[in-house]
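Standup, Tuesday
Yesterday: got the pipeline producing structure tokens again.
Today: sanity-check two examples.
Blockers: none.

Example 1:
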Amino acid sequence: MNNIIEIKNLRKDYSDGFKALSDINLNIRKGEIFALLGPNGAGKTTLINTICGIVNPTEGEIIVGGYNNISDYKKARSLIGLVPQELTTDAFVEVIDTVRFSRGLFGKPKNDKLINSMLRDLSLLDKKNNKIMTLSGGMKRRVMIAKALAHEPRILFLDEPTAGVDVQLRESMWNLVHRLKENGVTIILTTHYIEEAEKMADRIGVINKGKIIVVDEKDNLMKKLGKKELIIELIEPLPVIPDSLSSFYLKLKDNQLIYSFEEKHGENHRLSELLNLLHNNQVKFKDLKTMQTSLEDIFVTLVK
């Protein structure tokens, strides 16, 4: 089985008529990092909570590791670790005790060697005997990750894991995510830092108004929806674009000519043609540079 999560015709309606999720069909592959992107209120957290069994669906089926997440709830849930957006920990408990407790909830035997290793990876080992109330917000979020990993799940949900976390800690957190992936753990994350999804994810899904609007390999998404721009820095201002260049649909901005194109066969010939025409029209330029559309640009386009 290549898919570790299978979601079929999932719907979630609330009593006030609000449709939080509509006709969700989605497969998550074993061992991948899947980024779920969407604006606030799009349904990301509702979808995660429904997969984890925290929210009951109105309709549809969710299979986790071969187990139905309702009829085989305990088996399905034992495969999942969840790091929620909200920091919910007992303020007066020591770090190591809350992580031990989370492990014990799933019937796992005591294993302080494993827990200490995990705390070390999360830069928490020197804080393991501290009460949670004494920790900073970033450290508390790391404790939440430790609690989610304590029972050695095969799937890890990270719902906005780096919110309020400094840059250095964010880097160490993503290093841990890569190590988990190398050990076969499937990671599903939501994030408002789109550059993180661009850097980390294998596949990306975009959800908006409770509906999945696109799911694709990150590289495919960038290739299909992303564009490149050739920016031509002019030596002298150009009053108008010559008629002979009209087929290139150039934009004139300040002292720049901008040509948008897609990476495809024959495009290099097209670029050479453009440069020759500029020369023939005595349009002089001092610099050329290309820019690639970012994932954030694509995301904004998709959710408009």
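Example 2:
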Amino acid sequence: MSGQANKGVVAAGHAVTAEAAVEILAAGGNAFDAIVAAALAAPVVEPALTSIAGGGFLLAAGPSVEPVLFDFFTQTPRQRRPKEAVEFHAVLANFGATTQEFHVGMGAAATPGMIPGLFHVHRRLCSLPFERLIEPAVVKARDGVVVNDMQSYFLDILRPIFTFSAPAARTFGPNRDGTDPLAQPGDTVRNGDYADLLLTLGREGERLVRDGEVAQQIARMSAEHGGHLTVDDFTHYKVVERTPLAVDYHGRRIVTNPPPSAGGLLIGFALRLLAGGPAPDPGRLVEVMRLTNQARIDSAMADQGAAAAAAKLLDPNFLKRYRDAILGRPRTSRGTTHISVIDSTGNAAALTSSNGEGCGLVVPGTGMMLNNMMGEEDLHPGGFDAWATDTRISSMMAPTLILDERPTALGSGGSNRLRSAILQVLINLIDHTMAPEDAVAAPRLHHERDFLNIEGGTDPATIADLTQHYPDHRVWPGRNMFFGGVHLAAADGTGAGDPRRGGVVRRAPA
């Protein structure tokens, strides 16, 4: 480690999330212990982005750990309730310049995977008891956390969801009477029910959400309030271990989320296009983004020109996985958060998780809001009642590791923009040899649907050149969360929390 010796480095979307991981590293835990603790703490301070009633992906590797991707994302229910019996409501989230329609109610909830996933990772890779890993989150949930500007902003955008039900308003508001608005910057929010849930999980294990009390509660909520979920969904849910997608790029080995998720595959596709050439200039980078968009399963892979280009750049097995594993799967890519951890022995972990935006309903006595993955537009191209049953939902989430003598863990939130954000940070690190903070802070580009977004701070000459070639564009006035939020940890003790999404870096002292 560079500078002061330490036991590891953590990057996350909130100080409390990162400090939970640091506490566990300082107590002798490894990177996998630390990231599980951080994932349990994140819902306390990032409730608009994640919940243990959502889903995620964890990418792990280390000196004695072969790279492995743990897929514990959400699953569509095993049975579909009649349309007329489903409670499913549209709400409008206010982003200031625009509004966006989301869907809430029990009919919007998919089978969650976070709790089974974290227990699975604990059995496979962790060194400390699960009861120890819950402690940082329990303390913060019970004692309360002060809401910062970023988290207040997220909650305010999703106000119709977090005030959809009285229990949600009480859980995520500054007081428990439900009459006050959602928490404002400086308010203290406590979630004693969530602390109690974690303590019960520590005692009873994941059976609590398989066929135990919490599973039964969710099933009753679903039956009474127009949802699809039953205990059968929870008992049949499986965490899947996948071989990560690997790409060699300019002398560095990069591994990321494989199919059936799309984000890592599209990053790999872009890196294959760039490999063998010099460090890409902005014009070439945007062109690669354009070609990558063409290669997306739901559009370009049906086009002979793009399919021929993909076949030329990717080996046949890779291409077959691209078509077979993703084509036709439901996909979601909404609000997300990311955590990166590397410990002093070289273990690396990257975890990206999401709750969608939340379905507006809190499971009684648990302090956790259920996801709304069944209410995502991308999931239902044929209509909200046309989804395939019992199917793992695909995602743009792409936890990523650079594996060599200088391991690096990174990932991002940001819907479709997370893949372009990760790609540009990788290029900044590898081709431009930037320090992590500079690589993450550098202005970004995003090209999609024939429209180019240029982040504020981009060189004026570059802007002039790009806008000449891409007349449909927007030059943003400054850095913006639209362009993702890459949180990065490196084995030399450096790291970067993306300021676009309130990111922080913390180090565990030796």
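Quick observation on example 2: DSSP finds 19 helices and 22 strands in the chain. The first strand starts at residue 6 and ends at 12.
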